[in-house]
Amino acid sequence: MSHTKLVPSLLLLSIAATILSPVIAQQQCHFPAIINFGASNADTGGLAASFRPPKPPNGMTYFHRPAGRFSDGRIMLDFMAQSFGLPFLSPYLDSLGTNFSHGANFATFGSTIRPPPSIAKQLLSPFYLEVQYWQFERFKPTSQFIRNQGGVFATLMPKEEYFSEALYTFDIGQNDLTAGFFVNNNPQQVKDSIPDIIKTFTSNLKNIYNMGARSFWIHNTGPIGCLPLILSKFLSAEKDSYGCAKVYNEVAQYFNQNLKEAITQLRKDLPLAAITYVDIYTPKYSLFSNPKKYGFELPLVACCGYGGPYNFSISVGCGGTIKIHGTDTVVGSCDKPSVRVIWDGTHYTEAANKVVFDQISSGAFTDPPIPLNMACKR
Q1: Domain segments of the chain: what residues?
Q2: Neighbours of 151 (CB within 10 A)
């Protein structure tokens, strides 16, 4: 074949690929703000502002002080903000030095999708998803009233158009499952509750959509059967080849399957929305199944904790005080958080959060398979 015939053929193939591939055809999105709903994996200080803040050594790696996050450093939401060139997201509930000009974070430690059952209220946050929606419902008009008033606080509020241009992110649902396990529900009973949990989630998402949200980035839930929280509670549970509790991970996978199916339906119900389903389960599980690949060790053992084979106790958390041989001792960090996966028995280290964020933001684990910076409606 001559070069003159080959070049037009290649050009046609290139044009066809550009038309057929949404990733190639799209341009990067401009997200001037992030509005987040969720639980502790996405909490940047909501619980700390409302109740009791995390103690040192939380925050030691990046912030060098407790910064409202349940980690030694940054969480995935922080890496997301930095990737867009935005400041870290201020908690809606924090009244001290908050700046909402580029969004707000409604997530708190212990938040659930459904209202927490009375038997578990002491373990969970009162700011469940519908309450977070109510807060957003107030935040949108009130922020614009303050902005229109002018003065020193006006610049701390988002511009009106940001509400339709923002990326709306969700990381919630894990506590609905773990709370079920901890109030003596067996795994099958927790599985049976999942359709209603997902129904509640979609109802709230539709309400947020009706407030003007258009671009959604929704995390599924991680492998809860690999967490010291679960492993130390259910020591006799059957383990997989990597030491994770099989049945508890199967419940998480069932939740994720139901969530993905619900998002497929939401795309039909909300045709003006761009809804990205984000699989965080797979990259998180890879940290336990192949830790050496990412430079990690002892993946099932908490870095900041005390007691038992998983260095975790439900009775004393990271930064808490415990008596050892009659002496008050602070529960501190391991020597190198950067080579550990789990920070405090429930949450991940900054290093692990960064590995997972890099993978999901590439689009390798999303449906549709698009990178984070293209997750908007065209």
Answers
A1: 29-294+351-368
A2: 8
Query: Would you name the residues annotated as active-site residues?
Result: 40, 344, 347
Do the beta carbons of residue 29 and residue 376 sit within 8 Å?
A: yes
pLDDT band at 326 (very low <50, low <70, confident <90, very high): confident
> Which letter does DSSP use for residue 294 in this model?
G
For β-strands 167-171 and 215-219, DSSP reports them as: parallel
Interval 232-255: pLDDT, tens: 999 999 999 999 999 999 999 999
Which conformational region is residue 254 in: left (phi greater than 0), alpha (psi within -120 to 50 degrees), or beta?
Answer: alpha
Order of strands, sheet of 103-105, starting from the edge strand that comes earlier in the sequence: 103-105, 34-38, 167-171, 215-219, 274-278, 366-367
125, 128, 134, 139 alpha-carbon torsion, rounded to 10°: 60
For residue 262, what are its two tokens?
Answer: 């619900």
Rounded CA separation 204/207 (Å): 5
Q: How far is CA 284 from CA 11, 155, 233, 244, 275, in A?
A: 40, 38, 21, 12, 21
DSSP-derived pairing of the beta strands 327-330 and 321-324: antiparallel
Element (H, E) at 79: helix 76-83
CB count in 10 Å sphere of residue 274? 19
Q: Is 237 helix (H, G, I), strand (E, B) or coil?
A: coil
Of the candidates 180, 110, 105, the residue with the CA atom closest to the CA atom of residue 139: 105
Number of Cβ within 10 Å of residue 360's Cβ equals 24
Residue 329 structure tokens: 């001792």
DSSP string, 176-207: HHHHHHHTT--HHHHHHHHHHHHHHHHHHHHH
Question: Is 29-294+351-368 CATH 3.30.70?
Answer: no
How does pLDDT run across 283-312, given as a tens digit for each residue? 999 999 999 999 999 999 999 999 999 999
pTM: 0.92
